[in-house]
Amino acid sequence: WPAPPMTLAGSLSEDSPVIQDIQVQCEKSRILVNIIFNRPFQGVIFSKGHFSNLDCVHVPPQSGLLNVAFAIKQNECGTSVSAGINEISGQPNPAGSYVENIIVVQFDPQVQDVFDQARKLRCTWYDFYEKSISFEPFQVDNLNAITANFLGDNLQCWMQIQTGKGPYSSEVSGIVKIGQTLTMVMGIKDEENKFDMLVRNCVAHDGEREPIPLVDEHGCIVREKIMGSFQKIKDFGEAATVVAYAHFQGKYT
Question: Can you give the residue ranges of the ZP domain (predicted)?
Fold first, then answer.
């Protein structure tokens, strides 16, 4: 050993080990593999096509282990690597980049048969993600601000749905009754007091049905029966330098 294994059609005996679980931990430079058997494993595990390379025989024969662990380096043993950049567009690939290696679990160290298993192990990384972002209500007197950086200008933004006629009312808590008057309140805090704000592209949805547009891309109210026009308050206090708010019409809420 090592010598190229013979390939035969055989039968799997009742006392032959069975793979119970394969666990893979992905790192940038290697793949960490852990394989659990139900009985002591006396066979050999190697990267496909690299049986003659001792560095690529990850588990030598007659180990008798129930739990085997090994690492496959990124540039060895036939590991293939994909680029995270699209070759045509030059842009980041939404499918991400990956490394993969095919391992062979051979139960007899000298004979390869139909009961041996080949597993392709792939680790994938993504260079960017696309997500929809929505504001959750914040307590005005205890702001958890979301900071957006604009070329050196720092803005803190927050949003609330208040009961009754805001923007100085209490935040909604619990179940809201149909027809209850509510107020949408949005604020920005600008330390230099040089920014104004425009609310646009606002929708309401429950996460299941189609979103209901409330404000279009120009900041105009789409459903005037449901929602009134936005009004503004400057110098709202410590919470905001500008606040925009609109009342939901009670009988349509």
Answer: 25-253
The more confident residue out of 151 and 184 is 184
Work out the mean pLDDT of the chain and round it to a whole number. Answer: 77
Phi-psi region of 217 (alpha: psi -120 to 50; beta: other; left: phi over 0): alpha
CB atoms near residue 26 (< 10 Å)? 14
CATH topology of domain 19-125: Immunoglobulin-like (2.60.40)
pLDDT tier at 77, thresholds 50, 70, 90? very high
Which residues are paired to 110 by β-bridges? none
Cβ neighbours, 10 Å, residue 37: 20
Instruction: Identify any residues that bridge with 68 across adjacent strands, giving them in sequence order.
Output: 35
Inform me whether the pLDDT recorded for 113 exceeds 90.
no
CA distance 112 to 39: 19
